[in-house]
Amino acid sequence: MKTNFPGFSPEALKFFVQLKRHNNRLWFLKNKQTYEEEIKEPMVSLVLALNAELRNLAPELVTEPKRAIYRIYRDVRFSADKSPYKTHTAALFAPRGLGKHACAGLYFHFAPDELLLAAGVYMPGSKELLAIRNHIAANPTAFRKILAHKQVAALGGLQGDQLVRVPKGFAPDHPAADLLHYKQFLVWVKHPPETALGKDLLHRLVETFRTLLPLVRFLNAPLKPVKKEMIG
Questions:
Q1: Which of 43, 61, 115, 171 matches a 20 to 30 Å C-alpha distance to 8?
Q2: pTM of the predicted model, to two decimals?
Q3: Could you tell me if residue 228 is inside a domain?
């Protein structure tokens, strides 16, 4: 079945621009209906449309909206910034059983200043990070081939936080030494926020995710299921 999504409305972008200026509970409550109608409900529709595409493309990444879509409410308990709301809407598609943030997945967010599409591992635990590094160390040629693909390279290549030196347990002159420095393994691309308003948004997401699937599957290959996922 062919899927479609008309894009977010100009009112959705305007909401985030204004929320960034007035990030407080009073303003949000006055404008909550706009959030519900122009952002929350369309996000559910977009995730469902993406799931329909992923069923053939990557069935292991199909994720129900409730799990995929991040809450707009910020956790301010340990943050100096006490702004109560996120100024973007986001969704993550990750395999069940591997830990929502510790494994590789597909991600996008729509913010007042950008539309970001990304894939990879953002917050691996120590066990996951070691497993991924061991996998890269054993298969450097395969990993470099994925990163060198012209469509992946066009998105900017591998990004993420890195160590200054090769991590303990790996030889400094290892053939994959430059890759083993990474603590995160990410590829992302940014577009102007107005891109999210176009009817080709769904197609852009699907094609970018299609390009990045080999990266996601490579990074997840050495990971073992966990008993309980981290709650995001």
A1: 61
A2: 0.93
A3: no
